[in-house]
């Protein structure tokens, strides 16, 4: 009865960790599996790590791989965890490539999940829910809200997503 | 552009705290406001604490008060935080009283938010998202899933929600 | 160069966990090993779980077992994790049995380690440090302080340890 | 009856926070006060923020200020929170300047306190305890151990403190 979902992991703040030897933030494995366990998820989810990059290192080639993976997946509902700084650009790339009748929801976090005070778990619960019930399309889910891919922007001064002036 | 939502707080595991003098779990104030801040929610939400009771202490009178508050609220989208053991019964009471064209989503937590490893933040993000996009009706949102009020039960042995055999 | 230490686990709030099926606090395994890893301890420590009981369930027989284990251990420095309500009584029992030239430090927590906001890690770091440098004797280490076994009491109203009026 | 202690804050990993707008680690206020509350400390402690710098930005001038503040403080027991990479050098500078009959203990953290999995609380409990009972001298307290200032080094590959070969 539950529809299958895919989570495509692209990295971003969501998955940053603290390297105690270098004192720097870095990527290792995604935390999405652990977050689903913490959330007691009973959804039928396949997690696919597409890449582990900083939002600012997301270029056209990386974006093309995400588009390709969205097309290749058989699930009709897909959540993409992505850095917030270029999440809107990736949403546009997916939508403009033609999203193939799927519901695709991009989400991320302002604070790494590995830190005590992350918004990641809230956003993941939110994105998975929107992905199950919104009509086909490409969306950004942040701050408890959902936006169509062509009506959203990140306000970098305030660290929030908001509707874009037409 | 954002629709107003209400969160009705009924207590439950969600809001239990540890009393370090007595060594017992108890209720004080709801954590819902803090959770919304952590989730960087930008939704237009009004929080109303209706009661602070254990799921097992939820009786017909308490349930009638929740029904009454659902009717009285002007928002079309309502999330109710509730103990998991009797969440389904309260959902039924609301639905049978006639839910008045609103989308009402009950959610809760298996582990108190104040503890390190709670599913509460995931569930809150999930419930708020379902409340925004599901058609009018009464639902339970747990484990990343949503259920109609009349098709769900709690599996107490496993601590999860599941579809009820017809 | 590092002296060997023993940690005797007696239970107490330190090790309480939340049972998400029953909604009650209970004991399973001690968290002391995990806490030492978190603290990056490089001490030569042996952990021995003597019992897992609530402070209020600590009776003379249980206390006699702790006294016996203190005697049996070969380490000269011993930390005992114990419920706070009867910690002073157990300290007295050990001291009155003759503590055999060892430095024995009892500690505990006001809030379970498994919860987000526990004093357990602070107390464990403190107790292990006192155990390494205090002269032979029986002590209670709580609230950053150390007390001789015969000069301390728990103030139950305030949830702190303090010097006992002579 | 409790002796007064001072905590001199010099920054270091201990106090790093995550800036959710820039995605970088930075310093704002020290977390030491919050950590003492969490540890339910009842010690008579004065916290003085001397500086907030990365261990690698600690230069001779900064070090001279710490030495000066150690001398100026009236307390006989002083804990210094400091970045781990140059903690040993600062301990040496204090010792060589003549530490004036005081017990001075440097400590730090491998992971910021603001992150979920920090060793900071363990180390702070440990350092405060050593500072109360060790004889006058300059020490480093890390990994549950204490070292004289002239017998310790940081093993950067392993991220631990260890005795230095003579």
Task: Determine the mean pLDDT of chain A.
Answer: 94
The percentage helix of chain A is: 25-40%
Strand order of the largest sheet of chain A: 4-1-5-6-7-8
What is the terminal-to-terminal distance of chain A?
40 Å
H/E order of the elements of chain A? Answer: EEEHEHEHEHEEEE
Radius of gyration of chain A: 15 Å
Number of strands of chain A: 10
Q: How many H/I helical runs of chain A? A: 4
* Structural class by secondary-structure content of chain A: alpha/beta
Overall geometry of chain A comes to globular
In the predicted model, the low-confidence regions of chain A spanning at least 5 consecutive residues are none
Question: Layout of SSEs?
Answer:
Four copies of one chain form a homotetramer.
Chain A: E1 4-11, E2 16-19, E3 24-27, H1 32-38, E4 44-53, H2 60-72, E5 77-81, H3 87-96, E6 103-107, H4 120-133, E7 137-142, E8 145-148, E9 152-155, E10 160-163
Parallel strand pairs in A: 1-4, 1-5, 5-6, 6-7
Antiparallel strand pairs in A: 2-3, 7-8, 9-10
Overall description:
Chain A has 4 helices and 10 strands, in the order βββαβαβαβαββββ. The relative contact order of chain A is 0.19. Helices cover 27% and strands 33% of the residues of chain A. The N and C termini of chain A lie far apart (40 Å). Chain A is globular, with a radius of gyration of 15 Å. Chain A has 166 residues and is of the alpha/beta class. The mean pLDDT of chain A is 94. Chain A has a 6-stranded mixed beta sheet, with helices on both faces. The A-B interface holds A 1-2, 35-36, 38-43, 110, 117-119, 121-130, 132-134, 141-146, 159-163 and B 1-2, 35-36, 38-43, 110, 117-119, 121-130, 132-134, 141-146, 159-163.
């Amino acid at each position: 009865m539950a529809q299958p979902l895919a989570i495509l992991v692209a990295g971003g703040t969501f998955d940053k960790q603290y390297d105690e030897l270098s004192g720097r933030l870095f990527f290792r494995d995604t935390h999405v599996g652990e977050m689903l366990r913490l959330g007691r998820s009973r959804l039928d989810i396949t997690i696919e790590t597409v890449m582990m990059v900083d939002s600012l290192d997301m270029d056209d080639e990386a974006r093309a791989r995400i588009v390709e993976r969205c097309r290749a997946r058989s699930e009709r509902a897909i959540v993409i965890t992505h850095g917030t700084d270029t999440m809107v650009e990736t949403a546009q790339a997916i939508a403009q490539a033609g999203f193939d009748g799927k519901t695709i929801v991009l989400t991320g976090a302002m604070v790494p999940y590995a830190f005590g005070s992350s918004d990641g778990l809230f956003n993941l619960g939110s994105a998975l829910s929107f992905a199950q019930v919104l009509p086909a399309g490409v969306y950004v889910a942040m701050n408890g809200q959902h936006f169509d891919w062509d009506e959203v922007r990140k306000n970098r001064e305030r660290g929030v997503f908001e509707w874009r002036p037409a």
